[in-house]
Write a structure and sequence with these properties.
The chain contains 5 helices and 5 strands, in the order H-E-E-H-H-E-E-H-E-H. By secondary structure, the protein is an alpha+beta fold. It has a single domain, classed as Histidine-containing Protein, Chain: A, CATH 3.30.1340.
């Protein structure tokens, strides 16, 4: 990671300790996903590394995959790239109704 990039991604937390912005962004997005009314979306995982946010998990429809993408993009600025690896696995394949 370049020094300029590392500086740009360092924020001051409320306690005055420096904390990488990537950790803050990742935890906020995870919290947002876990508040979804769709159980499958609550199980989607995210990891932010060097400006790339990777989403992983399974949802039963393309609609829910798009909901994940829209939710995540609403929380990010233009400096983060989203890699959506969420798989659409229909209910018939999983037996789950979420």
């Amino acid at each position: 990671m370049s020094e300029a990039y590392a500086r740009r991604l360092t924020l001051e937390s409320s306690e005055g300790n420096e904390r990488p912005a990537e950790e803050l962004i990742e935890s906020r997005i995870t919290a947002d996903l876990q508040q979804s009314l769709y159980p499958a979306i609550c199980r989607v995982r995210c990891q932010l590394n060097d400006g790339v946010l990777t989403l992983q998990g399974q949802v039963p429809s393309y609609y829910q995959k798009q909901v994940v993408q829209t939710l995540v993009r609403s929380r990010l600025n233009g400096t983060v790239v989203v890699c959506n690896r969420v798989e659409v696995v229909p209910v018939e394949a999983t037996g789950r109704l979420d």
